[in-house]
Specification:
This protein has 158 residues and is α/β, with parallel strands linked by helices. It folds into 2 domains: 42 residues; 113 residues, 3-Layer(aba) Sandwich (Aminopeptidase), CATH 3.40.630.40. It has 4 helices and 8 strands; from the N terminus they run E-E-H-E-E-E-E-H-E-H-E-H. It has a 4-stranded mixed β-sheet with strand order 3-8-6-7. The chain has a two-stranded antiparallel ribbon with strand order 1-2. It is globular. The N and C termini lie far apart (35 Å). The relative contact order is 0.16.
């Protein structure tokens, strides 16, 4: 709950007390975390893939990476994806990585349970409209399916 993000103040996060932070966690984060954990527990050998987007310019720095493949300690799926990267500038743990604290969901719901996992970061100018979103979804779907086959998982049943 940062009070400042990049070049922007976040007034609603300024001067939060510990009690206010705990209340937000209880209202927003805990239900999400618990629901996700419950859904994962219902499945046999779940595979956790999180998808996010990032801005092409951050703190005045241009980010030329197009797609980031992020992982925490378990790099099995990330390695398979990087070996068969599509026609984009794809990089490991870029523009963020574990040191930035962005792999929380992977660590919480996948790594500690031994589930295959990866986080995909897409530069948001590549998914700015419905046509580019559909194209990226198709690219990621095929790419992820091929990577899963590489690690020995049938994408249709895994």
């Amino acid at each position: 709950m940062p009070a400042h993000s990049e070049a922007y103040d976040v007034p609603g996060n300024r001067d939060l007390t510990d009690a206010e932070r705990r209340a937000r966690i209880a209202r927003y984060y805990a239900p999400f975390r618990d629901s996700l954990a419950s859904e994962i527990a219902r499945r046999t050998d779940p595979i956790i893939v999180t998808i996010h987007s990032f801005t092409p310019v951050y703190n005045g720095e241009i980010r030329d990476v197009e797609i980031g493949i992020l992982h925490a300690r378990d790099s099995r799926l990330a390695d398979a994806m990087l070996r068969s990267a599509p026609n984009h500038d794809v990089r490991r743990n870029a523009p963020y990585g574990p040191k930035d604290g962005v792999t929380h969901t992977l660590k919480e719901h996948a790594v500690r349970h031994g589930h295959l996992n990866v986080m995909i970061e897409i530069r948001n100018d590549l998914i700015a409209d419905e046509v580019s979103q559909t194209a990226m979804a198709q690219t990621l779907s095929g790419w992820t399916g091929r990577a899963l086959q590489t690690v020995g998982v049938d994408a249709c049943t895994g």
